[in-house]
Write a structure and sequence with these properties.
Blueprint lengths: L1 H9 L2 H16 L5 H30 L8 H18 L6 H32 L4 H31 L9
Length: 171
């Protein structure tokens, strides 16, 4: 699993797809500022991560267990692509720092939300042992919230770093 994850994150096509995504956004919203486009990129990735988290945690809460790392690769790739798109949007994609930030941020946030979903399923299983339908709904909603929050956190960090913010500067 880890070899496939590393291969997926280090694949050069993600940088190309991120650049293509930024070009499409600029064509679709020609009057939008960088900040508006960055918000769209972050929101899109957050919704993808929320869907993945919700689709995994809901059924897992029903059955009472989550296979570890089931959506970690998807989230890491999605977050990596988001960071690369933000780097392209702010003109910081030339160096290796954008790639390193994307990989580290994507893996850290994906792993954090994965561990959070694991704990969530254990808590729901213990708190609602005979209400599998309620566990499923709560697991899906909260699992989606974990994925959404992870993507927004990584997106805000990357926006601050690439946008020339005071706290984080990668250039």
């Amino acid at each position: 699993m880890y070899a496939a994850l590393a291969k997926a994150v280090l694949d050069e096509t993600h940088r190309e797809r991120a650049g293509l995504e930024v070009r499409r956004l600029r064509e679709r919203y020609p009057r939008a500022s960088r900040e508006e486009l960055a918000s769209r990129v972050i929101r899109h990735a957050a919704l993808q991560c929320a869907a993945a988290g919700g689709l995994l945690a809901g059924p897992a809460a029903f059955f009472g267990a989550v296979p570890f790392g089931a959506d970690l690769a998807y989230q890491a790739v999605t977050l990596n692509r988001m960071v690369l798109a933000l780097a392209a949007l702010y003109g910081a994609e030339k160096g290796g720092r954008a790639r390193a930030t994307g990989i580290a941020g994507g893996l850290a946030a994906g792993l954090g939300s994965e561990i959070g979903r694991q704990a969530l399923v254990r808590v729901l299983r213990g708190a609602l042992p005979r209400r599998s339908g309620t566990r499923t709904i709560l697991g899906g909603l909260l699992g989606g919230a974990f994925g959404y929050a992870a993507a927004v956190a990584v997106g805000r960090y990357a926006r601050e770093a690439f946008g020339g913010g005071r706290r984080f500067r990668l250039r």
